[in-house]
């Protein structure tokens, strides 16, 4: 009997020792944290369980929200699924929730999509997912910041919040970065028309960012249309091509967000925008909700004047790729220029861009007649036709050659078929290099041939205004030191009277290179 009691007592002692060991094991592991995390994830599976309440300023006041998980009292939810995931992605999200206790990476992916869980974590003991911010201010043309993780945007305050930024993120002393998202950083007067976007980074312990009211499951790209003046060259070079470089890789699954919203620009390039994004463009400045994205790109990538450098492109895009994109956007039929067979009665087509004010051809009728006599079918157009992009793209695509004095109209070379020819008439004033940089340099990268016709002192109307000993003749480069002077004399102050015999010789060489007998 005594031995039995001793055995029972010994068993009790062993049991208590085992309990003590188990407690120590639990305390030395993250088992309880995993249980806590799993409970938070499970709570959010019940719809309308959390409140996303935003004040008129778009910012959340502390203490203005509760969840059923906290007090058992459900409230009205004003969360909106603006871009709902496909059934396939919904299945993935559900899988991530189930496996959340096993794989923290899956949990982070879910947080980037689900606004409800995102809000709960912001005000709970469980740390929000760590986000990352990277910025590049080294370019002469643009500043760019890219961020991923828990990213929130409030348009009316022009602010982007990077929640729980990681240690490897770009960081400033006050956690704030400002960017003007337009790629002409070197032009002070232009950038003055661009609204600043403020990017605020918070450490993981900070809980002040606004709550999400709209959650997106696609990236966002923020850019400005403020400086647009309707100039086709700048519209293409400063906005359309950089947008293509920045967003094409998403294959339409990207949200475009515009600050300094310019209705005319948006309308003019609506076909391009629709091809780059399947979602309506958001007017950032008037947007009074808090939008949450898995990643945001503030600023657009600029490589060169009217150009793309494959080495700088994440996907190796080229100028030829961009022209192919435009052909798709505007349903252009011709991909390549093929030699016209003269014996079959074919004639190559030439489109001549006729300027109406500065740098106009004073003898345009003779120039048209000369090209026609050489054998071209000539299409002469003024700036009023060029303004309708879709219509004029069709015209240019039917042509083999485009001719014009240096100016925005030559930008329509982007609608030529591959192997088409660009003829740039360079006005007087040592303008060869700036003209080449604008159209001569990008042409080969677009798969186009480039030909120059440089006007002489005898072909400029400046000879009727200034004496031959004036700087415009004896030292034109001295007037390049100031852009205002160069513009005054050589871009805005002269027209061109072609030497028809010399012009005919150039056109004849081009004709012979694109015809067969």
Architecture overview:
This protein is of the alpha/beta class. The chain is 35% helix and 17% strand. It has helices spanning 2-27, 31-43, 68-71, 87-98, 104-113, 115-122, 188-191, 232-247, 263-268, 270-276, 319-329, 364-374, 383-386, 389-397, 432-440, 442-445, 471-474, 483-491, 500-513, and strands at 80-83, 132-136, 144-154, 159-163, 176-179, 197-201, 214-216, 220-224, 255-259, 282-283, 290-298, 340-341, 349-353, 377-381, 401-405, 421-426, 449-454, 515-516. The strands form 3 sheets. Strands 1, 2, 3, 4, 5, 6, 7, 8, 9, 10 and 11 form an 11-stranded mixed beta sheet that branches. A 5-stranded parallel beta sheet has the order 14-13-15-16-17, sandwiched between helices. A hairpin with a 7-residue loop joins strand 2 and strand 3 (144-154).
Give short descriptive properties of this protein.
about 525 residues; eleven-stranded mixed sheet; 18 strands; about 35% helix; alpha/beta
Write the layout of secondary structure elements.
Elements: H1 2-27, H2 31-43, H3 68-71, E1 80-83, H4 87-98, H5 104-113, H6 115-122, E2 132-136, E3 144-154, E4 159-163, E5 176-179, H7 188-191, E6 197-201, E7 214-216, E8 220-224, H8 232-247, E9 255-259, H9 263-268, H10 270-276, E10 282-283, E11 290-298, H11 319-329, E12 340-341, E13 349-353, H12 364-374, E14 377-381, H13 383-386, H14 389-397, E15 401-405, E16 421-426, H15 432-440, H16 442-445, E17 449-454, H17 471-474, H18 483-491, H19 500-513, E18 515-516
Parallel strand pairs: 1-7, 4-6, 7-11, 8-9, 8-11, 9-10, 12-18, 13-14, 13-15, 15-16, 16-17
Antiparallel strand pairs: 2-3, 3-4, 3-11, 5-6
